[in-house]
């Protein structure tokens, strides 16, 4: 059985090469009917507004402006698709926890995200981003419940780990793993990352490559 938490230097290097290949923005879908054909494996990123989804996507592919980061929370109001060398799609889901959006607007785009989760046959895993400085909050519970209900495999990715003091990262990893231990669709590994410093990104690339089955050939 493959140890899902360990990667060889060869795994890390293959993933580095893969994610260095061309990545392009494909489209943003505001309605479920607008989604591209499900002809490539997909992994999706979800999380609270301003948790660092755009920064993580940009960090994984080594580009500064592939996914547009914004200082205004809630700007991602479509399901945005990015193509990685014709081998997989990276999908940026609408953020949640908006403070400045109307309830009607929030529901519209959260429903779009849920529809995508339920019906996307090529979706291999969702990476749910959580700010490592704060850990899981009550607002994240609805997202966890939705993922469990959709029966989609998901993994927690802690972001902004460069803002933590020494030892705090391991503590929040352990606390988060304990909190999700009984959730049926949760992958039992919590990643600790920093897009700014590159921490954890090589391993996350390797994890995504393994999960999607993508190859360099």
From TrEMBL:
It holds the Pfam family MMR_HSR1. Residues 39-214 form the EngB-type G domain. Its cofactor is Mg(2+). The keyword GTP-binding applies. One of its GO terms (biological process) is division septum assembly. GO terms for cellular component: cytosol. Signal peptide: none annotated. Transmembrane segments: none annotated. Keywords: Cell cycle, Cell division, GTP-binding, Magnesium, Metal-binding, Nucleotide-binding, Septation. It comes from the Bacteria. PROSITE patterns: G_ENGB. GO terms for molecular function: GTP binding; metal ion binding. Belongs to the TRAFAC class TrmE-Era-EngA-EngB-Septin-like GTPase superfamily. EngB GTPase family. HAMAP family: GTPase_EngB. NCBIfam families: GTPase_YsxC (TIGR03598). Necessary for normal cell division and for the maintenance of normal septation. This is Probable GTP-binding protein EngB. The gene is engB.
């Amino acid at each position: 059985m493959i140890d899902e938490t360990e990667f060889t230097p060869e795994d890390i290097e293959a993933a580095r090469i893969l994610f260095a290949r061309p990545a392009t923005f494909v489209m943003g879908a505001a309605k479920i009917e607008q989604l591209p054909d499900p002809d490539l494996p997909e992994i999706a990123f979800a999380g609270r507004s301003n948790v660092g989804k755009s920064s993580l996507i940009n960090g994984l592919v080594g580009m500064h402006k592939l996914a547009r980061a914004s200082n205004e929370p809630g700007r991602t109001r479509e399901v945005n698709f990015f193509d990685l060398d014709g081998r997989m799609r990276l999908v940026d889901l609408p953020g949640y926890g908006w403070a400045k959006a109307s309830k009607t607007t929030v529901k519209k785009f959260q429903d779009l995200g849920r529809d995508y989760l339920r019906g996307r046959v090529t979706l291999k895993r969702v990476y749910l981003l959580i700010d490592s400085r704060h850990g899981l909050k009550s607002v994240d519970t609805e997202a966890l419940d939705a993922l469990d209900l959709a029966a989609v495999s998901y993994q927690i990715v802690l972001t902004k780990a460069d803002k933590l003091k020494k030892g705090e990262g391991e503590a929040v990893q352990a606390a988060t793993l304990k909190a999700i231990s009984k959730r049926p669709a949760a992958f039992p590994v919590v990643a600790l990352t920093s897009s700014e410093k590159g921490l954890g990104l090589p391993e996350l690339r390797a994890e995504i490559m393994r999960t999607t089955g993508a190859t360099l050939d």
